[in-house]
Amino acid sequence: MPLIDISDLHVRFGPVHAVRGVSLAVDEGEAFGIVGESGSGKSTVLRAICGLAPTSAGSIRIDGQTLTAPRPPAFYRRAQMVFQDPYASLHPRHTVDKVLSEPLAIHGFTDREARVERALNDVGLGQGFRFRFPHQLSGGQRQRVAVARALILEPKILLLDEPTSALDASIQAEVLNLLDRLRSERGLTYVLVSHDLAVVAHMCERLIVMQHGQTVEELTRAELQAHHAAQDYTRNLLAASEGFTRAAP
Amino acid sequence: MSTREWLLTEQPGSRRQARMGQTYRTWLAFRRNRLAMVGLGIVLALVLVALLAPWLAPQDPIVGGSLRTERLLAPSWQHPMGTDDQARDILSRIIHGSRITLLVVALVAVIATPIGLLVGTTAGYYGGWVDTVLMRITDIFLAFPRLILALAFVAALGPGIENAIIAIAITSWPPYARLARAETLTIRTADHIDAIRLQGAHSARIIWGHVVPLCLSSVIVRVTLDMAGIILTAAGLGFLGLGAQPPQPEWGAMIAGGRRFILDHWWVATMPGLAIFVVSLGFNFLGDGLRDVLDPKAHK
Lengths: 249, 300
Description:
The structure holds two protein chains of two kinds. Chain A is α/β, with parallel strands linked by helices. Chain A is built from nine helices and ten strands. Chain A folds into two domains: about 160 residues, Rossmann fold (3-Layer(aba) Sandwich), CATH 3.40.50; about 70 residues, no CATH class. The model of chain A has no long low-confidence stretch (mean pLDDT about 90). Chain B is mainly α. Chain B has a single domain, classed as MetI-like (MetI-like fold, Orthogonal Bundle), CATH 1.10.3720. The longest helix of chain B has about 35 residues. At the A-B interface, α3 of A face α2, α9 and α10 of B.
């Protein structure tokens, strides 16, 4: 049985039909990619899973249980999200310590000090960062804090919404390696949204390509790397990711 | 390690050090603004004068001297601001009057700011019908002119400085509510609010711990800038005889008392007028300086 099972998901924001009948299944321990251009509804699928976007039709099941709205508190200990922009996803007036200890306070953990220290070490930030404010951190350090926050409740599922697209190329690799390491250490399940095919090919075993709120096709990593795409849209996307090539004269 | 280095370190070792360092940085930014420092000086002077009024005032503010020989004396070394028609030293009355002014300012700030913040952030955060109901109530309060509502209050409760303060506070929170709501509308869609929602936080925790701290600075700036208006309203009520009652040395009431001899004995109305002017100006400078420091949007 797949860990995450989405069938025929529709999301409407008023007159805008953002997601039109997307189905996907993610097994435990797998990294699953969702690729598409801006406005294709890929982020909305993630937000629908964690309850930030309304589900207008279809169902989302985790471990065979259909999710209800609003999500029960236990849900947030199973699935967490990392946002795209680390400059917007940390509260500007809260120290790293406050950011990390608040979820623990909400869920009634008692050994907060030890957990905060461990979480900082796990994402490669030392204790020297613990009482800094976000404006005292670089983009990559902020995203590490965001990853630490997502993992501090020890979830099994991590939803990654373009976690590296706001970062410099060199720092992108650092954060991707961190995510890779954490997944293998903890057996996490990832759903990664990105417009960057290279990132998805690096991280994910399987992926779907989305356009206009619908699934265009589903590929495995091998198919992606061998450019075995069945649909024109995917082939264009692959060609675009190769970069600009001059047409033969 | 010097205190300054301890405060400005990039690697604070404790919550307290991080918080104090942040406060110190704000202070450093504030100190660069000369007008703001002037404003802070005036406001601190007001507080000091109010605290030390019985020791600073050269004479009794309520019981005057000889009504035959000491009425309406021009400013002199003995009476630096002259005397009024009851032969009372005007300087002493102004010094004691600073207590009433400070009371008005402090109570209005303490009553109106939390109401405005709470109504505004709640309306902005929930949206929908909560927003509609709260904002229409705010509109109703905004529709009352301050002085007229104060008149109604005073008619119902009797004249006095306390009722004037209540009336001013009740009519001054709606602008803060609107400001807080506007700020909340931009904050509530931020990723960090979504993030804390995903940690399972309840609305009360999000509003109090995450939205209010971000609205607070612009509301504080607005309250400080409004202080001048609040002092003037209190003085206006005093002038109309509805605020502080004689013989209380309230600045507005003192101007009203001096109105009758404004042509022959100018100092009786001018001196309290100057006091109102200086304190209002001080609050405006302070508010402008705070806006530069606290409001991140004003920087660019």
